[in-house]
């Protein structure tokens, strides 16, 4: 709680200080800077069908292609004056890139819905997919659908990553949790971690999470965060290290009393450290 006195002009009477109370009951992560203090839609549960991500991803690729085509159209006459084959080559290159991007999205969708990863992880969930997720999130923001699209994107990422069937030793797995879990969720995480003997770290900021990873050198990570924080974390870490990302529900708004699916967490931890 903070108190703030406002100055009163001397000519005005009677001098009466005004006390303004500012309740500081949570520390917002910077991803939530623009939160207006109102309850989050759906009680802070942003679950969404995977199809939502695929639709927005197609829109994102179309928007990127259209932006590149517009640029080429505008600079086309100068390019043609410089070298006609160069201008033609740029258009052909753009067409090829658009075709490749469409093919990539189709393979991604076929992998997800066909229940079989058609590309190695470096070309899929630990490769270009991470970039696609982030560009798609930018487009989704323009439509006010950010959290739902990010949730769907993370679900697809987890499904693809889980299918790789990775196994690591107990000491090689790291569980990273945020500071905003409810007591019930925190107790549940600690209980699971104790049962499977895996270390748990509270990462108050992304920077700290990256430091813990650098110092502990795990071979896999189960991370817990809201959709917004998870997107940043996956973008920074998943290319270097296998990560499974558990998103949360935020019934009391961002950065406080977050709830998680403990059964899902246990399933992932158990799967990663199981020896059979
Ligand atoms: S993970 Fe929790 S503390 Fe971090 S930004 Fe999301 S809601 Fe806030």
Summarize the amount of helix as a percent range.
40-55%
Distance between the termini: 53 Å
Please outline the major beta sheet: 4 strands, parallel
Bound molecules: iron/sulfur cluster
What's the alpha carbon Rg, rounded to whole Å? 24 Å
**Gross morphology:** globular
> Into which percentage range does the β-strand content fall?
5-15%
Task: State the order of secondary-structure elements, H for helix, E for strand.
Answer: EEHHHHEHEHEHEH
Low-confidence stretches: 1-11
Structural class: alpha/beta
The average pLDDT score comes to 90
Strands, total number: 6
**Helical segment tally?**
8
Helix and strand topology:
Elements lengths: L1 E4 L13 E4 L27 H33 L1 H30 L14 H15 L3 H17 L10 E5 L5 H14 L3 E3 L3 H11 L3 E5 L2 H11 L5 E4 L15 H12 L3
Parallel strand pairs: 3-4, 3-5, 5-6
Antiparallel strand pairs: 1-2
């Amino acid at each position: 709680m903070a108190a703030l006195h406002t100055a009163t002009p001397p000519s005005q009477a009677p001098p009466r200080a005004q006390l303004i109370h500012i309740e500081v009951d949570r520390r917002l992560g910077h991803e939530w800077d623009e939160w207006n203090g109102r309850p989050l839609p759906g009680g802070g549960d942003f679950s969404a069908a995977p199809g939502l991500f695929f639709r927005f991803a197609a829109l994102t690729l179309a928007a990127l292609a259209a932006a590149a085509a517009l640029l080429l159209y505008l600079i086309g006459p100068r390019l043609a004056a410089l070298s006609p084959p160069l201008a033609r080559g740029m258009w052909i290159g753009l067409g090829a890139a658009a075709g490749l991007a469409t093919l990539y999205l189709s393979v991604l969708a076929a992998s997800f819905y066909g229940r079989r990863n058609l590309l190695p992880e470096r070309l899929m969930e630990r490769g270009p997919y991470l970039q696609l997720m982030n560009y798609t999130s930018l487009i989704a923001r323009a439509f006010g659908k950010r959290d739902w699209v990010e949730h769907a994107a993370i679900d697809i990422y987890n499904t693809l990553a889980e299918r790789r069937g990775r196994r690591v030793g107990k000491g090689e797995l790291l569980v990273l949790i945020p500071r905003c879990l409810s007591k019930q969720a925190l107790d549940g995480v600690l209980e699971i971690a104790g049962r499977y003997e895996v270390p748990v770290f509270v990462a108050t900021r992304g920077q700290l999470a990256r430091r813990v990873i650098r110092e502990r050198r795990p071979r896999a990570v189960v991370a817990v965060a809201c959709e917004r924080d998870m997107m940043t974390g996956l973008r920074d870490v998943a290319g270097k290290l296998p990560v499974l990302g558990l998103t949360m529900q935020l019934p009391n708004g961002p950065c406080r009393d977050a709830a998680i699916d403990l059964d899902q967490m246990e399933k992932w931890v158990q799967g990663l450290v199981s020896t059979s």
